[in-house]
Specification:
It is a single chain. The chain is 6% helix and 50% strand. With 713 residues, the protein is mainly β. Strand 28 and strand 29 (659-666) form a beta hairpin. The radius of gyration is 25 Å and the shape is globular. Bound molecules: copper (II) ion (CU). Copper (II) ion binds at residues 100, 102, 104, 251, 283, 285.
Amino acid sequence: MKTKLSVAIASLLAVPFSVVAEEVVHTFAPVEVNATSIKKQDKTAISNVLKTADTAAALSDEPGVNLQTGGGVSSLPVIHGLSDEKVKIVVDGMQILSACANHMNPSLSYVNAATVENISVMAGITPVSSGGDSIGGTIAVNSLTPVFASGNENLHLSGRVSSFYRSNGDTLNSTVSAAIANQHFSLGYDGTLSSADSYRDGRGNRVRSTQYESMNHTLTLAAQGYGQTVVLKAGQQAIPHQGFVNQPMDMVGNRANFVNFDHQGQFDWGKIESRFFWQNTTHEMGFFSPEKTGVMPMETEGSNLGYSVKAEIPVMDKHKLRLGNEMHNFKLNDWWRPVPASVSMMMSGNSFINIKDGRRDRYAVFGEIESKWDAHWSTLLGLRYELVKTNAGNVQPYNTSMMNQPDVIAAKAFNAQPHERTDHNFDVTALARYAVNDNGAFEFGYARKTRSPSLYERYTWGRTGMDMMMNGFMGDANGYVGDINLRPEIAHTISATISLQDGKNKQWEAKLTPYYTHVEDFIGVIPTTNGITTATTANMGGATGANIALLQHANQNAELYGIDFPWRVNVMDNQYGRANIKGIVGYVHGKIKNTGNSMYHIMPLNAKIAVEHSLGGWNSAVDVQLVDRKTQVDSLRLEPKTAGYTLVNLRSGYQWNFIKIDAGITNLFNKYYSLPLGGVNFSEWKANGRVGQINLPVAGMGRSFNVGVTLEY
Ligand SMILES: [Cu+2]
């Protein structure tokens, strides 16, 4: 039985960081010009289920992708040194912006890795049809697609139960999927439940505030016929708690609902896809565990409403024209309820209004033409325009006491200004590919990409050390304030890819992708002060020599360059099975040109090597990850340096009819190491009495024994 669900099972067998997988399940407009540094990676993501429920973490084996870690299910992918909302992330075509001052609920936190069917990563140069509102690459995640009965089936029933357990942190992740369908209609349900305690590092110490619990439910209704497919998905997510080791606060509740409608149609003149989606989140921060204590309720409500219409029209034999129109409206309210004066004078009185009635509305149109000129040459040219309007209402501090004077003055100044801003953003993509023959190809291209500032970057205004610290989404425990006059950031990227392969016997392949990006008006930071540094230095504010840096979002010039080098060699193919050795080398350098400073969160030189073996139902591998010491650090953010490390993982799986069993050991030698993109360990600093600088990096997970079982019918 070849169903989408068995595709999901097959993906369990698939190997991580495969450079061979090129098939795209998503049926609309695959980019056939295998564009420069576009990597399509499918069905491999879930191979990592033994490691994590975190969908972002499932991406960490992709060339060019690293992870900025925070909460257990809320990591942020970094592509070629650009992270968070600088990267475009779409889940089933929906773009969901973080409704949290600490970006605790990014798009990928709403989907469990176990229900992901395929992921495509477009690093660097992105076709305009899948870009917009970003300067990094695009990550498109598709969850399980509906199942229909095949030609000779009247009724199709399928189901899957899958669970894995990880000893470190007592992590349990369970998934149930079921579907009933005939040839025209399909009804499906997917549910996931995952929970973890705080994990232990390689020295056996508990890493505070890394525990979580998360639940997802999705109902899918679909119909197909006459060349048309409609899919309606509706779902709910709840995260009752999630610790954030590198943030002052933890998540004490995140509830989200969504409705996503998609239509794909094939007509004589071409294809069309229309989508409509709505999503809303209520988010609350506070404290829930003895691992990090305090009192400070903070609430956020966000909603996303959008549609897109895309058409693909063949023109003569050689060209495909794609036209599209999109809208995305984002609404945000962020307020912090007061506490009794007996608990804190500073936070008593009124609600602190961080962002009121925030709006970020985007309207986009694009046109793109893909041409296959002859057996060798193909090109892709695209132009995209976006109108982005942002706005926010008036704000207020907790109270007007002496301690809050920086806020009283700042609120007055903020409220006196007009808040509405309008940006006109243009993106351009130009790509060419020359295929020599089966044995290689050369691709090169240029992209101009634009992103308007987020509401948190433009409209946060608080000026006490504490408010500023609450508005940090970098995991560095520094204090941040917005700037209403921020301009959109514009990235110019040039990139090339040389791919070589053994076209005849498929015994080996390698791809080398160097890239260079210059960013005009990069949204970075400059030092700032709140006028009363001495008063707040004692607890957690102050511009110099204090526990944290006070920073303001600011437009700067920046440059990034680097290289991705994935490769694979087949070393055995006989009666003892098939074995591959494969790897990736990644390097990125990022600099703020105004200051000569390193960019924040730049991954050190790193490499991955895997030896994989398959025989019958068996699949086994040894993975080795090597990371150099981190010396490129952002001194402005007091970013800690980290030591180099090597991690070894083992895994093996056996598939027998409808049962699959996986087992593995991650961090086999129980190596103690610091996460280069994990920020600082705020939780430990706080537990130890807030003494001195917060400069301890967050330790990665120690050894874990993992086991998983999947049943499918
Ligand atoms: Cu939050």
